[in-house]
Amino acid sequence: MNLRARLKSQLPMLLTGAIFLASCSATDTRVSGTEYGDPITLTDTTLVSTILANPASFVGEKVLVTGVIVAVCESRGCWMEVASDSEYEKIKIKVDDGVIVFPTTARGLTAVVEGVVEELELTAEQALERLQHMAEERGLPFDSTTITGPEKIYQIRGHGAFIAD
After folding, report:
1. What pTM, to 2 d.p., does this model score?
2. 3-state SS assignment for residue 69
3. Average pLDDT of 16-39?
4. CATH topology of domain 3-164
């Protein structure tokens, strides 16, 4: 593996370590940011791509993930989507409404998130309602023909997060 590929594969772990250390030490100002929810307790990062490759095997497990924030709930800040270490992948981080509120200005910043992987089984009607709601939130057109039946969704129920400035 060439140096560039090796660095790219280790970047999430290195970034998580740097952010985590900075968030734990009051005297360390190398990485500034904001903590949300419970303190982060895990130290080993799980790659988002690893979770998405076999999400059912992670259901119920507490994980620590890191990535660039690509979307935030516009109405309540009750979820955000974090980019994977693999292109075109992302995972949703859902928090209890009002308990943790992610700012919409966090888009493009790096987050370190601790939470539990969960599986949601939606009926076809629930899947339709979910996608329609998401389209409305984002101001996008909605095509109901894209829903063909029930679906499973995997996300992380966020307990704590650190968002770097």
Report:
1. 0.75
2. strand
3. 66
4. OB fold (Dihydrolipoamide Acetyltransferase, E2P) (2.40.50)
